């Protein structure tokens, strides 16, 4: 097993390199960029935008005021007409685009290997600080949503499998189908209307992870305040997430219950509970665990993007989206790098959980 873990860790390196390389190449061909964004702001908003974007550098401001009097200057930038070529070159140097693409990629990989993500293009703060500030929100949403949805779906799926075809199975299937069909952000909007002062009750807060007086509260008060703020977004996420894992658990248990070894165990006089949790559970849960990494990553990032927007929760999903729209490439690549590492680590953890649940599985015997 130790050799298998080492192989998986070694494979993470080319995987990360491939992900970053493909993304880097796509970005090179994507229309627009940080330089074009600055030029568009200069053309549309004048000198005031320059001080916000470039930090008020006086030499760049002087270059911006100069004009070349023609459209022959740096024609590859739309909106560059009338700006001094020297100013545009300084912008390229500021964003690092004065170097060839391979050199920029190699430097980025070297820096990221040391977890040096540099500074945001358009925020006067380091990328690591931006991620650190928003990480608690994403961890809270992703971790709690995954744990709560699995805590609901696994017992519910087992119960549905045991009582397959009963009235309980039928009406819970209706609830599951509704949860699967309606997106989580629609649940979020409905919860806001009903319980967050939208049109009816105002029981829960509409924004933020904690209250303004959070630091002055007692330990119990902090826990209650945190749960109070997380109630609606977590409810919206769980209602839209537990359906798939519930049906997966039910079908997996049904498949195992009908196998010969279960009939043999019952013929030996074992109780139904002993058969279910002593024999069926270990085998049936393997396929459920296989879906854990995708569920966790989805909850950690993509699944919570709209929820973060609706409930004004400033997490990594919202940060990544706004950075992509705003062409803030250091933030885009840094979050991609971190999510890729987390995804690969969670997949390895999933394999280790396989062996913990069923010791008969031996990944070390595999060639890869």
UniProtKB/TrEMBL annotation:
The chain crosses the membrane at residues 9-30, 137-158, 170-196, 226-249, 284-311, 331-350. Pfam families: BPD_transp_1. This is Microcin C ABC transporter permease YejB. It comes from the Bacteria. InterPro entries: MetI-like, MetI-like_sf. Keywords: Cell membrane, Membrane, Transmembrane, Transmembrane helix, Transport. CDD domains: TM_PBP2. Its main location: membrane. It is found in: Cell membrane. Residues 135-350 form the ABC transmembrane type-1 domain. Belongs to the binding-protein-dependent transport system permease family. It is a multi-pass membrane protein.
